[in-house]
């Protein structure tokens, strides 16, 4: 029998008030998006009235379609304003060394990166087997772009100490088939800025485009620099940089669904477009991947930027920098933990010392105390770590973190590491993705408390411990299987 209580298509429509109450009840299971205790996924400025303003602007334009800028010039005006603002923040526009900069608004960082790769690939149609060079620390979206676009990925290792690639390794990885060289400003995992000027110079010398992925930090680094933080050149001031991405739904504090992809000039952007007239309907011209696009995120971002203004962002960067300092001090003050890198942007990333606690247990202990951090698995000589994306909303709560961190470490040490059955761990280390059967996955999921009824276990340490023991290809496959167990329709 069909359960009508949560059906998205009930036999009879449900009154508006009731539906809203239901959505609010569902939201209670989510991590808190406000309150300065969530260190991933959400970027909170904690500015009174900002959410309401963005929501109102979103509602004004939610049904407007970005598919056709001639039908909805309001969106074109707002998009051009967002691109102009992003260009100015990142060293482009009138009076700079990149006066001809152009760009597009996309739905997010991943779309911006896929389009940067597409533009680079399609600018070189004579190359039949195109390749891109990325540091191992580059965002996974480049691997996704390479996969979607059938471009080969040449990954350059990063030094386990500095977490940056060596320029010589990048130069050595460039081949005649290379269409794009990538660097991050900063990397997501550790918040480290790559040697952009040197990498861009190397790429330019080889006649190859250079994309700076500033999706994460592109809106904070310039403000941190104005506040006195010593940062290397990473934007259009570096002549070899041909494109830059920056996500407005991250540190520009706009609601989700907005990133900007900038190119140094219109010629570089041209191969990003897709046009099609060879069918009986309207001639399609798309600068980005989506065709129909809601105006909601664009209007919300426009309202957010205009309301906060340049001085507002400077103040938010100042608060964030102070929160980073307090959190990093908290980590330094606890025995058994160490920073993976000295924070130079808005990430605090730490790991355990030899005698320290099990990090995955620590993450659960922090969650039990209301702090939601992001565990990162060990990879290529880099230890597993805990990632904190720090936003302005953390400034008022940061001072409370140290005591809870110390308590959580003590609790994790008392609890000891996760003890998974040795045969399960051995299996994770030895299994190949091809050998995974549906039965094995179901057995693993049940053993970890995943699956049954679609719920998630309270403690994720067993899952993380198992994934940590598995090589990357098996991690990918296991997560695909686990997530697909969760994605089951409710009828
Ligand atoms: C450096 C960097 N690039 C790209 C992305 C992908 O962005 P999105 O999740 O908006 O697709 C992220 C997301 O965290 C990022 O940190």
Give the gist of this structure.
The protein is an alpha/beta fold and 491 residues long.
Q: Helices and strands, in N-to-C order?
A: HHHEHEHEHEHEHEEHEEHEEHEEHHHHH
Low-confidence stretches: none
Q: First CA to last CA: what distance? A: 9 Å
Anisotropy-based shape: globular
Helix/strand structural class:
alpha/beta
Helical content (DSSP H or I, runs of 4+): 40-55%
- CA radius of gyration is 23 Å
User: What ligand molecules are bound, each kind once?
Assistant: pyridoxal-5'-phosphate
Number-wise, the strands total 13
Strand content: 5-15%
Can you give a write-up of this model?
This protein is α/β, with parallel strands linked by helices and 491 residues long. The chain is 41% helix and 12% strand. It contains 16 helices and 13 strands. It has helices at residues 16-27, 50-61, 73-89, 109-122, 141-149, 167-173, 196-205, 221-226, 266-269, 296-332, 359-368, 398-415, 422-430, 438-447, 461-469, 472-486; strands at 102-106, 131-135, 152-156, 178-184, 209-213, 243-247, 259-263, 274-276, 284-286, 337-339, 347-352, 374-376, 385-389. The mean pLDDT is 95. Bound molecules: pyridoxal-5'-phosphate. The site of pyridoxal-5'-phosphate has 12 residues, from helix 4.
List the helices and strands and how they pair.
Layout: H1 16-27, H2 50-61, H3 73-89, E1 102-106, H4 109-122, E2 131-135, H5 141-149, E3 152-156, H6 167-173, E4 178-184, H7 196-205, E5 209-213, H8 221-226, E6 243-247, E7 259-263, H9 266-269, E8 274-276, E9 284-286, H10 296-332, E10 337-339, E11 347-352, H11 359-368, E12 374-376, E13 385-389, H12 398-415, H13 422-430, H14 438-447, H15 461-469, H16 472-486
Parallel strand pairs: 2-3, 2-4, 4-5, 5-6
Antiparallel strand pairs: 1-7, 6-7, 8-9, 10-11, 11-13, 12-13
